[in-house]
Write a structure and sequence with these properties.
Length: 873
């Protein structure tokens, strides 16, 4: 392949890279001593290293040594290979060359990765190319460059990939065009991509800036899985190392971004990519590699120096290198770059949790890791805990007893138009604090609005209630969400603490218990049984499944959004949590909730989704039969998969009996009550769910929906109006608002909403758009949508229910009823709405409908009325 000794080329190359570009030429003249071939090969390798195409694995330096003599084949340009016409060469290196091509069949640009000419007949290289295609084809993630296929046409074997416009992260860093405000958002996307790959058992092994593209809109695309390895998901079951050597015994990867264990050739796991990610994040923050540059200058170290630095050195502090480094990034980088794997982030989702918190403005104390902080959040589900700890670290009184006056916590009505959670927070605090031995709790009866500088003061409250402490606060909305403003005063009015922190509000009673316990600790009051239970729960989580808890929290965060592509992300998080802790019942319950939700047109419904949901729910119950989440999940299975209303109700009631503050149980029970015609009870349960999670979009939407089903159309309209102002990007709420518009006779407004959604997601909005066109007597448009949905049905899993809705809009019940009957037999969950939803009133008037009702053991529950009503009642 080359005429010079490989070892000599490698030695000269690595030494050349230690010089600045302007000094490199003089060095090569001296080192090559007239050997033109040697100099040509080294210069070729330097050029390949600095080309920055990002699409190739060419900076795997020692592997690139093998292909110094390889050049792009200009004869490829303009060729037509199958359906592809080669337009230009995008880059080369390693074993591959990537070309821009036109896919004439689908009329789109694609990137084609071919084996370089020197490797066309190399069986091992071809196998590696196939493995790369297979690895990426397993992944479906917005931040990973998609692989469309692998083709073998004539003598050509190549991967067909997504063509990405933009620049590599290396380009942005080199040109100093990466803004500080971009660093964390880009890092979040990279970590999310790695988490998806790791969830599928894939280690990238070559994470570096040149393998990360950034589109003009700021979207990250992780490229080049040419060195990726698929491994057992249970690392303990791996019987051999994932070798870092190529078939020729050369170390593969890019040395400056390798982990210590990668350089040692040890068995790797996902934490190796975490180290590489830390190196990339360091470089993003300050513009230089932490191991490849000398501290005093921009000069590069020799290869041996780089290896030594990674193995035993410590990089300069980011705060020293870059005074503009975003706050908190240095702590995350330091944890990524720990030499010992056990001291790093243990997974990409765990890293992502800290990045997400950083983006929200939540900074961690330098001596308290996010690992501990987020674990506390697993119990309280609130990011206020550290503040409350600090708040109550004040003078320790040593008297036998204390009196704490608690003023009702209020809400800023100007900025919190949703249901105020202040009363719930107040009640929870009073309940837990009043059980304290040695602490008398007195409640002030004054409304929050009368408390403040212009009205009652802390001194006045303390005097009236004979208290030596006063606690008061308000909930308001900050730029990034709800905030709790909490104040603690002594009886003389002196300040103990004034704090404000972001508020997350799904488990107030647990939070209140935590506050109560920390208060008792500072006042030297004895612990009670509730304290011991909470403490034991915390200890169990920290000792047994800390990482799993964090993954569970992240899964629940995705689940709570559940609008768009969040469900698959939630499944990935819950699944990883069960891998870490096989006995983690809550994670199995989370999986059950996800699979049970995959029942509407938005998701590609797996044939076995409900089977998986049932298995996960039963698994959760087998691990903990006294877990509200598990009973709620099992209730979902009965309700959505089996249409077994009696058993579903038993499970939801059991979940509420175990934990009356678990909002999802109230939400799901409200749906069951709606199904069975108990509308007033359904409204009460939906309100309970909303009150427990007053800032939760799905909880608020569920209450709006219950109002619609109860035929309170004006109230539902107002509810959804308010929700749209607070959460303008909540697409499911827009979808529901259009249904309410139909009930109010506002067909044009409903049609406009569905047209907008249909442009983005045909599967989700097609049925309702066709229905609206039918109601508006736009039969041609309705039939056009019907034809498009029928075509879609040939390609994707689409329930007959969706087509039946369009026929209903066209008033063609002869065709609609048989399709609804098929959906009923399939127990397609959304079809249950035909028995009570106002939009199906006309359907229920048909005599044939009674047969459908018998199949599900439900009568036609509600009195029928015109499908379109102008009444707000």
């Amino acid at each position: 392949m080359v005429n010079s000794n490989l070892a000599e080329v490698e030695e000269v190359f690595h030494e050349a890279m230690s010089y600045d570009p302007e000094e490199r030429v003089a060095y090569l003249v001296r080192a090559c001593e007239g050997n033109a071939v040697l100099r040509h090969e080294v210069e070729s390798l330097v050029a390949a290293y600095e080309s920055g195409s990002g699409l190739l694995d060419h900076t795997a330096v020692t592997l690139a040594m093998k292909v110094i003599g390889s050049r792009p084949d200009d004869s490829m340009l303009g060729q037509e290979i199958g359906f592809y016409r080669i337009v230009s060469c995008l880059g080369e290196g390693g074993m591959g060359t990537v070309y821009l091509a036109e896919d004439r069949r689908l009329n789109r640009k694609v990137a084609l990765k071919f084996l370089s000419s020197d490797f066309i007949s190399d069986t091992w290289a071809k196998r590696q190319l196939i493995r790369e295609a297979q690895a990426v084809a397993m992944l479906d993630h917005p931040n990973i460059c998609a692989v469309y296929g692998f083709e073998e046409i004539g003598d050509h074997s190549f991967i067909v990939m997504q063509h990405i416009e933009g620049a590599t992260l290396a380009d942005l860093i080199r040109k100093d065009t990466l803004k500080n405000t971009q660093i964390v958002p880009l890092a979040q996307q990279i970590a999310s991509a790695l988490g998806n790959a790791h969830a599928h058992g894939i280690i990238h092994r070559d994470i570096k800036p040149k393998n990360i593209m950034v589109t003009p809109s700021g979207q990250v695309k992780v490229l080049d899985f040419g060195l990726a390895k698929t491994m057992p998901k249970n690392l303990e079951d791996a019987t051999e190392s994932i070798s870092q050597l190529s078939k020729d015994g050369l170390l593969v990867g890019t040395i400056a971004y390798m982990s210590p264990e990668q350089l040692r050739g040890e068995k790797l796991d996902y934490r190796s990519d975490i180290f590489s990610m830390g190196t990339v994040l360091y470089e993003m923050a300050c513009g230089r590699n932490p191991f490849a540059h000398k501290a005093e200058s921009r000069a590069s170290k020799s290869n041996a120096e780089v290896i030594s630095a990674i193995m035993s050195g410590e990089p300069q502090s980011l705060r020293q290198v870059s005074i503009n480094c975003p706050r908190g990034v240095d702590q995350i980088v330091n944890k990524c770059l720990r030499k010992e794997r056990a001291e790093r982030y243990q997974s990409a989702p765990e890293l992502l949790i800290d990045l997400d918190n950083l983006q929200k403005g939540i900074f961690l104390p330098s001596r308290i890791t996010s690992y501990v902080r987020v674990r506390f959040a697993a119990v309280a589900a609130v990011l206020l805990l550290a503040i409350f700890v600090a708040m109550f670290i004040f003078q320790r009184w040593t008297t036998a007893g204390h009196t704490l006056a608690v003023v009702n916590i209020g809400c800023d009505e100007v900025t919190i138009p949703t249901q105020c959670m202040g009363p719930a927070m107040t009640e929870a605090l009073l309940k837990t604090l009043s059980h304290r031995t040695g602490l008398r709790v007195a409640r002030s009866s004054m409304p929050p609005a009368l408390f403040g500088p212009e009205a009652a003061s802390p001194q006045k409250v303390a005097q009236e209630l004979n208290a030596d402490m006063v606690m008061f606060g308000r909930i308001t909305r900050g730029e990034k969400g709800p905030m709790l403003m909490l104040h603690l005063r002594r009886s003389d009015g002196s300040i103990i603490a004034d704090e404000s922190e972001p508020l997350n509000t799904d488990k107030l009673p647990v939070l209140a218990q935590w506050i109560s316990m920390k208060t008792a600790e500072q006042l030297q009051l004895p612990m009670n049984e509730d304290d011991h239970n909470l403490f034991n729960a915390l200890a169990a989580q920290q000792n047994q499944s800390g990482d799993a808890v964090k993954l569970y929290i992240r899964g629940r965060d995705y689940w709570n959004k559940r609008d768009g592509g969040n469900i698959q992300d939630a499944i990935d998080s819950f699944f990883q949590a069960t891998e870490i802790d096989l006995s983690y019942a809550k994670a199995y319950a989370g999986l059950a909730d996800c699979y049970a939700l995959m029942n509407n047109p938005r998701y590609a419904l797996p044939a076995d989704a409900m089977t998986k949901a049932e298995w996960a729910a039963k698994k959760a119950l087998s691990l903990d039969d006294n877990l509200a989440e598990a009973h709620n999940s099992y209730g979902l299975v009965f309700m959505k998969a089996r249409w077994d209303w009696d058993n579903a109700e038993k499970e939801f009631k059991r979940a509420i009996a175990i934990n009356s503050d678990y909002s999802p149980a109230h939400l799901n029970y409200s749906n069951l009550l709606t199904y069975t015609g108990r509308m007033s009870e359904a409204l009460a349960e939906s309100k309970a769910a909303r009150d427990l999670e007053p800032f939760s979009g799905p909880a608020i939407l569920n209450h709006c929906r219950a109002q619609y089903y109860a035929r309170q159309f004006a109230q539902a309209d107002a509810c959804l109006d308010q929700l749209s102002k607070e959460q303008p990007n909540f697409e499911t709420a827009k979808y529901m608002h259009a249904i309410v518009y139909i009930a109010l006779g506002k067909i044009q407004e409903a049609t406009q909403i569905y047209e907008e959604i249909y442009a983005r997601d045909r599967k989700l909005a097609g049925a309702m758009l066709g229905f609206c066109y039918g109601l508006a007597n736009r039969r041609e448009d309705a039939n056009r949508i019907l034809a498009e949905m029928q075509e879609l049905q040939t390609k994707e899993d689409l329930s007959p229910h969706e087509l039946a809705i369009i026929y209903l809009g066209l008033d063609d019940l002869d065709r609609a009823l048989p399709l609804f009957s098929e959906a009923v037999k399939d127990k397609y969950p959304p079809t249950v709405a035909i028995f009570f939803a106002p939009m199906f009133d006309r359907l229920r008037l048909d005599p044939r409908f009674a047969e459908l009702a018998k199949q599900v053991r439900l009568p036609s529950l509600l009195p029928t009325s015109p499908a379109v009503s102008n009444s707000g009642n």
